[in-house]
Backbone:
């Protein structure tokens, strides 16, 4: 089993806010997706469950998005027994209900209100970015929880980037968020395809790959 120290990543831009917890679970190099794919995914799911339990998330039910590469946003008012249908973004004001999305080249976009009212977690790849799901999520946070865009902190996770991908959607996400009124934007700048030993990359591994997990929770 990979040690937590090399499997779990955090973001300095978000760590300074004690009212939220944000983690990013990177690649499990001891799970082979090149054969027995179903068994590999079962192993990965168990690894994610165990890791989140060790991190203190295990006692709380999570909220997940179905992730269809669209621009639908689900307002989480309670933990769900299954994914929120048709959603690629989740927003909530609930405490101790971790939001969860999976990525393997697309970006996980974390949105945290400095004033401790609400959070959002977005799955945004090429299609979602073209559909402007991040600006839509920023608007949804304002409409549902009165969070001003200027009160938000935005963090972009590792994702695929040029030259390994023809579109720089991470930069587009940052530009869209800035135009929407967010002023504190941090992009980790890491390309998943450049570091396939540490991150799953759907393109570089030709689909025979796992998924990273992004978690964001108000506490």
Residues:
């Amino acid at each position: 089993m990979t040690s937590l120290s090399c499997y779990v990543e955090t973001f300095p831009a978000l760590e300074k806010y004690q009212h939220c917890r944000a983690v990013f679970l990177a690649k499990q190099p001891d799970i082979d997706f090149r054969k027995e794919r179903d068994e590999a995914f079962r192993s990965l799911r168990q690894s994610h469950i165990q890791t989140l339990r060790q991190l203190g998330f295990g006692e709380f039910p999570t909220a997940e998005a179905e992730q269809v590469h669209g621009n639908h946003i689900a307002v989480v008012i309670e933990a769900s027994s299954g994914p929120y249908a048709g959603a690629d973004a989740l927003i909530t004001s609930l405490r101790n209900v971790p939001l969860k999305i999976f990525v393997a080249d697309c970006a996980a976009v974390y949105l945290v209100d400095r004033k401790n009212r609400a959070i959002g977690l977005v799955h945004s790849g090429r299609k979602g970015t073209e559909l402007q799901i991040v600006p839509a999520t920023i608007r949804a946070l304002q409409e549902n929880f009165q969070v001003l865009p200027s009160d938000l902190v935005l963090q972009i996770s590792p994702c695929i980037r040029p030259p390994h991908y023809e579109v720089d959607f991470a930069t587009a996400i940052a530009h869209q968020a800035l135009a929407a009124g967010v002023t504190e934007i941090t992009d980790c700048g890491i390309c998943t395809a450049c570091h396939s030993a540490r991150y799953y990359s759907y393109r570089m591994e030709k689909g025979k790959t796992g998924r990273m997990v992004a978690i964001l929770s108000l506490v």
Notes: Residues 37-54 form the longest helix (18 residues). The first strand starts at residue 8 and ends at 9.
